[in-house]
UniProtKB/TrEMBL annotation:
Pfam families, sorted: COesterase
Protein name, per record: Carboxylic ester hydrolase
Domain Carboxylesterase type B: 8-476
Keyword Manganese: no
The UniProt record lists the keyword Protein transport: no
Family classification: Belongs to the type-B carboxylesterase/lipase family.
Upper classification of the organism: Bacteria, Pseudomonadati, Pseudomonadota, Gammaproteobacteria, Enterobacterales
Species this chain originates from: Winslowiella arboricola
Keywords in alphabetical order: Hydrolase
Length: 504
């Protein structure tokens, strides 16, 4: 009866009724903003209309329109029902009334800003919540619904106040909801960690760079964020006009654009998309996140950042031929080619291309970020994930694929029903060991911390020691700190990053 009573929660917007999963309280499909439909399409998220009766929070909210087949194949599973009405979040908590408020961890899903949802199996919050935190996942606007620029929409704002990053504003609205309401779920609104992988990691970097996100969270975890530059607003406006022409609207008005069916955008391809990045130059993101970190002007909050040993596995998704890229560099960029030969031992173009692409597009981003943290006077920790599940080591011969670390750091291997290559007890034990660092970061780290506790203490990064935590080594279950990891490559690619990173 006590648990039944505690399944009813009074939030600022109205009362919710959740469910129990074992000893955990779970609330799904909580609206954190008004549906961004009709005249609210391509608008900043608006407040939820309060409700009077108890609202059931027992099923996932709609996810943004996307390619279902792609999400099933590479995005983490079944994204559920699609709807433009998609601004919902989910909460897992071990205790509604703990003796002390619990740390809060907010997961922002990845998927290139085009696929994904907060209810996918790798992201379910129960395992970490059972270990003493409040977990939050969320849906947000994707694709053209989340990132869009057009002169007709710009005309609705005074100059300099234009908004194009609606997805980032959705994430900010979710964090505002956390500040208003997480205490009634047992969470500590003064200890909120945001975290995400791939475009979710880029979201964390963008929130560190956005003036509108200041004060809404207290630390961040960035997994496999790519170093691609954000789309300049000028280019996004040209893309927006091309999209309008595609729909036979060469002189489109805002009303005509908002009248287009919500499901008509997700299938558009290059050159009618902005790419898997945000738009730089609007009120949400006045400058690109990469440039903000290069200048060490990000919010001064603790940051953990890292990437995987075979991030180049994602290249096939973007139709990039690693070997052809190396051949092009050899022919067209003589100085860069000499540097590559100096930095790498690999002679096979395919292997070499995979390593170079990994380091330029992913590994270097972590180095840039921790260097920026040091310059800004905020602690930063850098990691490298190189563990491969025991039954898949013949498949992942080059290391950990893009995204494969997610069920380890979130301890969700048990949610993954793999029939041909099932996870082993040793895999699950490694997931427990790794995820403890994520939990300890959320529980204990502050702006004055210099170490993350764990079985091997993890010192904060600084230039002299240049510490990197390795989670796995050559696919095996080893955890240890390494000094000056890829130091020469990182120093070189930090300078070349903007020149060499390309999608085609």
């Amino acid at each position: 009866m006590k648990n039944e009573q505690r399944l009813r929660i009074k939030t600022a917007e109205g009362e919710l009724r959740g469910t129990m999963e074992g000893e955990l309280f779970v609330f799904k499909g909580i609206p954190y903003a008004a549906p961004p439909t009709g005249p609210l399409r391509w608008k900043a998220p608006q407040p939820v209309q309060p409700w009077q009766r108890v609202r059931d929070a027992v099923s996932w909210g709609g996810s943004s329109w996307q390619n279902r087949a792609e999400c099933l194949a590479i995005g983490g599973g079944e994204p559920g029902e699609f709807s433009e009405d998609c601004l919902y979040l989910n909460v897992w908590t071990p205790d509604i009334q703990p003796s002390h408020p619990l740390p809060v961890m907010v997961w922002i899903h990845g998927g290139g800003y085009t696929i994904g949802a907060g209810g996918l199996a790798p992201y379910l919050g129960a395992p970490l919540a059972a270990r003493g935190v409040v977990m939050v996942t969320l849906n947000y606007r994707l694709g053209h619904l989340g990132f869009f620029a057009h002169p007709a929409l710009d005309a609705e704002y005074t100059h300099g106040e234009e908004i194009n990053n609606f997805a980032l504003l959705d994430q900010i609205a979710a964090l505002q909801w956390v500040q208003r309401n997480i205490h009634v779920f047992g969470g500590d609104r003064r200890n909120v960690t945001i975290m995400g992988e791939s475009s979710g990691g880029r979201s964390v970097l963008s929130l560190f760079a956005s003036p509108l996100a200041e004060g809404l969270f207290h630390k961040g975890i960035v997994q496999s964020a790519y170093s691609l530059p954000d789309t300049p607003r000028k280019k996004a406006l040209e893309t927006g006009k091309a999209v309008a022409r595609h729909f036979n609207l060469p002189d489109a008005t805002a009303e005509q654009l908002r009248a287009l069916p919500a499901d008509s955008f997700w299938s558009l391809t290059s050159p009618l998309v902005n790419g898997p990045v945000a738009i730089a130059g609007d009120r949400v993101l006045p400058q690109s996140s990469v440039s903000v970190f290069n200048a060490a002007r990000q919010h001064k909050y603790p940051l953990m950042i890292g990437s995987n040993s075979d991030e180049a596995s994602v290249l096939e998704y973007f139709a990039i031929d690693a070997a052809a890229t190396i051949a092009r560099i050899r022919q067209q960029h003589k100085f860069a080619w000499r540097l590559i030969k100096w930095l790498y031992d690999a002679r096979d173009d395919a292997v070499l291309g995979r390593q170079v692409a990994r380091d330029i597009a992913f590994t270097t981003m972590g180095y840039v970020a921790v260097m920026a943290q040091h310059r800004a006077g905020a602690p930063g920790w850098r990691y490298y994930f190189d563990y491969v599940s025991e039954n898949a080591r013949d498949l992942y011969t080059s290391g950990t694929w893009h995204g494969n670390e997610v069920p380890y750091v979130l301890d969700t291997l048990s949610n993954m029903n793999l029939t041909d290559r099932p996870f082993t007890d040793n895999d699950r034990q490694f997931a427990w060991r790794v995820s403890e660092y994520w939990l300890n970061f959320a529980r204990d780290v502050t702006g004055s911390s210099d170490t993350i506790d764990g079985e091997v203490p993890w010192p904060a990064w600084h230039p002299r020691a240049d510490y990197t935590m390795r989670f796995g080594d050559q696919g095996m279950a080893q955890i240890g700190v390494e000094k000056r990891f890829m130091k020469r490559r990182m120093q070189v690619f930090r300078l070349l990053m903007r020149t060499l990173v390309r999608l085609n």
